[in-house]
C-alpha cells in the first residue's frame, strides 16, 4: 500500500488498501489514522475533494471505525 502525498493544510498523505478496505490518513503532525471498512468510492471521493480536510471531517471522521493511531 502506497501513501500518496496530498495538498492539504492538515493531511500529509493518504493510502488505501483495496483488498482490506482500509483507509490510511497521515497528518502533518506525524499521526497516522487507519479506518476500517471504508468503501473504495469514499477513498476516490476523498482523493478528488477540493478540501481533503473538509471531506475527512464531513464523511470519514467518526463515521468509520478507527483501527489504530500511531505517533
Distance between the termini: 19 Å
State the secondary-structure class: alpha+beta
Helical content band: 10-25%
User: Outline, from the CA principal axes?
Assistant: globular
Strands across the major sheet, in which order?
Answer: 1-2-3-4-5
Q: What is the tally of beta strands?
A: 5
**Count of DSSP-assigned helices:** 2
Q: How would a crystallographer describe the biggest sheet? A: 5 strands, antiparallel
Uncertain stretches:
none
Q: What is the typical, i.e. mean, pLDDT?
A: 94
- What is the domain tally? 1
Helix/strand order, N-terminal first: EEEEHHE
% residues in beta strands: 25-35%
Radius of gyration: 11 Å
List the helices and strands and how they pair.
Layout: E1 4-5, E2 11-17, E3 22-27, E4 32-35, H1 40-48, H2 52-59, E5 66-70
Antiparallel strand pairs: 1-2, 2-3, 3-4, 4-5
Helix pairs in contact: 1-2
Features:
single chain, 34% strand, 71 residues, globular, alpha+beta, 2 helices, 5-stranded antiparallel β-sheet
Describe this structure in words.
The chain has two helices and five strands. It is α+β, with helices and mostly antiparallel strands and 71 residues long. It has one domain (4-70).
